[in-house]
Amino acid sequence: MIIDAHSHVHDPVEAHVGLLDEAGVDRAVLFATRPHPERAGDLAALRREMAVLDEALGGRAGTVEAYRGAWRELDAALAARPDRFIGFLSVPLGLGTEETAALVEREVVGRGLHGIGELTPAPGGAGQIEPVLQAAADHGRLPVVVHGSAPTTAEDLAALAALAARYRDVPLVVSQLGGQHWMQAVELVRDTPNMYLELSTAPVVFAVRLAIEELPDRTLFGSDAPYGDPVLARTLVERVTGPGGVRDRVLGGTLAELAGLG
């Protein structure tokens, strides 16, 4: 099974399904989102959508109410195409341990979703995810996905690795190959057995090749659609791997294990 490990709700949903069909991708992990760059018809509209993205990546959308609209869109997409999408839920950061635990219990586990993410702590604020890791640890191997590209800093990546070492039962996925800090991300994930590296929007082709060589069982094919493209992302993985077990794991086998797809 080919699984895109990183995508966001599209408007309309069937446009996303069309991209998956074109790429030969069976299923996709689906994250909620507030910005919708795929809606933009011109540069001005795109700037408006990207301003919403900047707010989210800057950690300035930290209330439950700010998330509810995106959660409703995610619910609708999952209900429309349960055969194609694997639901993960973004949760607000900075709520405290008890409130976060109750939120994960109710909104993630209670709704039968497969993981938590994509989390977007503010730059320098990676430690904010600790209550989420605590909640995930209470539910076995519930995977947690954290934004890895800018504005995530090198210090944030190191902080994520330190937290992962503290919560060894929780699979922690760093997205976007760690962005410009991809070499550090590969090293940190290599040295932290419960960390994984998702490969979308890689800065250079050989970054993907090296990451897979170093982490054959802990790298995940992803597109970050609509910011990336499933066809291009899959082609890149296949360009730097040969047919066989490693490619199969990267293109979906490892993610299927993390998400409990059995």
From TrEMBL:
Q: Which domain of life is it from?
A: Bacteria
Gene3D superfamilies in the record, alphabetically?
Answer: Metal-dependent hydrolases
Q: Where is the Amidohydrolase-related domain?
A: 3-228
**Full protein name:** Amidohydrolase family protein
Source organism per UniProt? Streptomyces racemochromogenes
